[in-house]
Amino acid sequence: xxxxxxxxxxxxxxxxxxxxxxxxxxxxxxxxxxxxxxxxxxxxxxxxxxxxxxxxxxxxxxxxxxxxxxxxxxxxxxxxxxxxxxxxxxxxxxxxxxxxxxxxxxxxxxxxxxxxxxxxxxxxxxxxxxxxxxxxxxxxxxxxxxxxxxxxxxxxxxxxxxxxxxxxxxxxxxxxxxxxxxxxxxxxxxxxxxxxxxxxxxxxxxxxxxxxxxxxxxxxxxxxxxxxxxxxxxxxxxxxxxxxxxxxxxxxxxxxxxxxxxxxxxxxxxxxxxxxxxxxxxxxxxxxxxxxxxxxxxxxxxxxxxxxxxxxxxxx
Length: 316
Ligand code: MTE
Fold this sequence. Notes:
Layout: H1 11-14, H2 17-36, H3 40-47, E1 58-60, H4 72-77, H5 90-94, E2 104-109, E3 115-118, H6 119-123, E4 128-136, E5 141-151, H7 152-159, E6 167-172, E7 192-196, H8 197-200, E8 206-211, E9 214-215, E10 225-227, E11 240-246, H9 253-257, E12 281-284, E13 291-292, H10 300-303
Parallel strand pairs: 1-4, 2-11, 5-12
Antiparallel strand pairs: 2-3, 4-5, 5-8, 6-7, 6-11, 8-9, 8-10, 12-13
Bound molecules: ligand MTE.
Ligand MTE binds next to loops.
């Protein structure tokens, strides 16, 4: 993600030395990310992901938006996957080296049926749906993506969380041999993020295994990733290897790395400015002009009730 700081605040004045050094690496990485936007068009022409296996028995979902889709080229060449580097082009250039089969997910914590599960077994007999959702990123760009997946709630019910499970935590595969960006001191690894249980059980929340009817390309989080359409894109944990049911709110990569900038809730909210920029508008790639960002990314009717008693300025 893109991180900039005003030059007049010295991080060393307000943070301890380790955090300060960590931050400097983080900002260097973010500078590279900003530069990368310029090269995107060329990359799209040259490096769009190769087409993968077609998924079978995919039915269309009534929960899809009817907005114009972004192309395969946009969706697979302009990515955030910092394990492969800070540049938006890095995942398209470097993620193909990640081996995604066989792939297991370890299910842990407060549930009656923990265990290590093969992705193929998780998918066996499941009906897949195409869900066309907007993805709104903190850095003020957005895309419309035809995901293929299934409700996270269906998976959760299967493993029977206990009454102590208040949150669910997702962890991305972490492998220095396959992920050249994962040695960066800029981030607090591995990539972890989470949801409150009612958010996880919401019918809009899915585990995605494909896009455009095909298996997910590596840069988009193969073989399985989270998609939560009313939240900023950084909640969509890619290439999941662990799912844990926990009592306490998870400590996430972003809340550990930059707690003043990225909150746990991460609901798309045009009224809450990021500390260093407004969140009121966004640029739908590849458009030039900005358009207004909508509260909960346009899903307020379905999700606003989850936050009725919360101050969304404090719980950003
Ligand atoms: N998951 C992992 N493991 N690593 C990441 O860097 N980036 C997040 C999210 N999931 C990220 C991640 C962010 S910031 C965004 S905006 C989305 O992935 C981007 O998803 P996309 O590349 O499929 O558009």
